[in-house]
From TrEMBL:
Taxonomic classification: Bacteria, Bacillati, Actinomycetota, Actinomycetes, Kitasatosporales
SUPFAM superfamilies listed in its UniProt record: HD-domain/PDEase-like
Matches recorded under SMART domains: HDc (SM00471)
Name this protein carries in UniProt: HD domain-containing protein
Residue segments, region Disordered: 416-436
Classification via CDD domains: HDc
Keyword Membrane in annotation: yes
Domain HD-GYP positions: 222-417
Annotated transmembrane regions: 63-87, 137-159, 171-193, 199-217
Superkingdom, natural source: Bacteria
InterPro entries associated with the record: Cyclic_di-GMP/3'3'-cGAMP_PDE, HD/PDEase_dom, HD_domain, HD_GYP_dom, HDIG_dom
PANTHER family linked: CYCLIC DI-GMP PHOSPHODIESTERASE TM_0186-RELATED, LIPOPROTEIN
Family annotation (Pfam families): HD_5
Length: 436
């Protein structure tokens, strides 16, 4: 995102002022051992640099939390500043993003250190009474996680225009488990730091954490490779069938909305999204002249096009990470009454992801302008889906889509090369979703 909306910049400025207020005490006086502040700040900055250079992902939260357990709130907050300001921002404007990251971490670390101190956590760390140190440390981690969640949700709402009711959804629970692990590592660092063994022993705690970060980075590299594979396949389809350019991504989005409304877990939602994106990949095996034909299809030509689910399944069957998405690619043109293709499956015989994609596919087909039909209003498309629910489409999926669209809206893009081109031929069939 090159430009940040004005309200998001104002939000960043407010958080930065709060962070500055958290940092003022150590700038006026020296309430904590500056040697520890400098060592932790250098360690955090070095860790961030290594993580960015080697693409480990994440951040060195154990170092920040160790500072929260060892130092006064303002001094602990200061640990995050150099590393955050010198980190790689990724996108422009770089300094706005760096200031946001620094301010966010300063406020979160300050809150964690303040609560930890109020609960007597620093005295317990000094005494080395490790079991009893878990209570204030756990409360500090919860505070750290909560502040990060609140601030992250706010920037999502202001910068990405995410509705407020969605901005914070799931952020806290997704962050709590990894931050708890980081908190335990930070507590071990703090206890060892105050032990006779000193800071050198505390650094040893980071070794297993670095190994885990490396493993996590490998996972993200593999995931990035998966995404690149999918993008390459979709781009190939879009190049071949220009009239449906963007259709795959929108079907993936609609499929994801339906899956979330049905209450599927995040992993399965991702699989369903992949299914929606790749549902038409089999068109790579269909002659281009048929996909771009400007007239009615003959029965023989229609049979050739109806082979695309099987072509698609053959193309993706060896991609193991797709899971259920492969079955959805094969069966997304099946109908509940058995009149679909390629195998005429009925009812529950059709895999659930395929039933999701069938509704998403038909919905986008009806709400997008093509060479042979103009876009219908969203409300009209939903009514048509409801009319065909029970015969062509699973009523649960249709209801889920209607609820999601009512809650979040739908803004389909025109996909034809020229939206003003007059309709030159009738659809392949009168049934919704019967498109190329």
């Amino acid at each position: 995102m090159e430009a940040i909306p004005a309200r998001a910049r104002a939000y960043v400025a407010c958080v930065a002022l709060c962070a500055l207020a958290c940092l003022l005490p150590p700038l006026r006086e020296a309430p904590s051992p500056w040697r520890a502040v400098v060592l932790l700040a250098v360690l955090y900055a070095a860790g961030e640099h290594v993580a960015a250079r080697w693409r480990f992902g994440g951040t060195f939260y154990p170092v920040l939390l160790a500072g929260a357990f060892l130092l006064s709130p303002s001094a602990a907050a200061l640990v995050a500043v150099p590393g955050a300001l010198l980190s790689r921002a990724g996108q422009r404007p770089l300094w706005t993003r760096r200031i946001w990251r620094a301010a966010q971490l300063v406020v979160a670390v300050w809150a964690a250190a303040r609560l930890h101190g109020e609960l007597g956590g620093r005295d317990v760390v000094v005494s080395g009474d490790f079991p009893y140190a878990l209570v204030p440390a756990g409360a500090a981690v919860l505070a750290f996680c909560l502040v990060l969640t609140v601030l992250d949700g706010g920037i999502r709402a202001f910068a990405e225009r995410v509705p407020l009711r969605r901005a914070w959804r799931g952020l806290f629970l997704r962050s709590l488990a990894p931050l708890t692990v980081h908190g335990l590592a930070g507590l071990m660092m703090a206890v060892l730091w105050r032990s006779p063994y000193g800071p050198v022993a505390a650094l040893l705690v980071l070794l297993p954490m670095c190994v885990s970060w490396w493993v996590f980075a490998q996972y993200h590299r593999e995931r990035a490779a998966h995404q690149a594979t999918i993008r390459a396949l979709v781009q190939a389809v879009d190049i071949k069938d220009g009239y449906t350019r963007g259709h795959s991504e929108r079907v993936g989005q609609a499929s994801m909305m339906i899956a979330r409304e049905l209450g599927m877990d995040d992993d399965r939602v991702e699989v369903v999204r992949f299914a929606g994106i790749l549902h038409d990949v089999g068109k790579l095996g269909v002659p281009t002249r048929l996909l771009r034909k400007d007239g009615p299809l003959t029965p023989e030509e229609r049979r050739v096009i109806e082979l695309h689910p099987e072509y698609g399944h053959e193309m993706v069957r060896g991609i193991s990470f797709l899971g259920e998405a492969r079955a959805a690619v094969l069966h997304h043109h099946e109908r509940l009454d058995g009149s679909g293709y390629p195998y005429g499956l009925m009812g529950s015989q059709i895999p659930e992801p395929a039933r999701v994609v069938a509704v998403a596919d038909a919905f986008d087909a009806m709400t997008s302008t093509r060479s042979y039909s103009r876009a219908r209003p969203v409300s009209v498309a939903l009514l048509e889906l409801e009319r065909c629910a029970g015969s062509h489409f699973d009523p649960r999926m249709v209801t889920a889509l209607a609820r999601a669209v009512d809650q979040y809206g739908w803004h389909p893009a025109v996909t034809a090369d020229d939206a003003r081109t007059p309709v030159s031929r009738p659809p392949v069939s009168s049934a919704p979703g019967a498109h190329r």
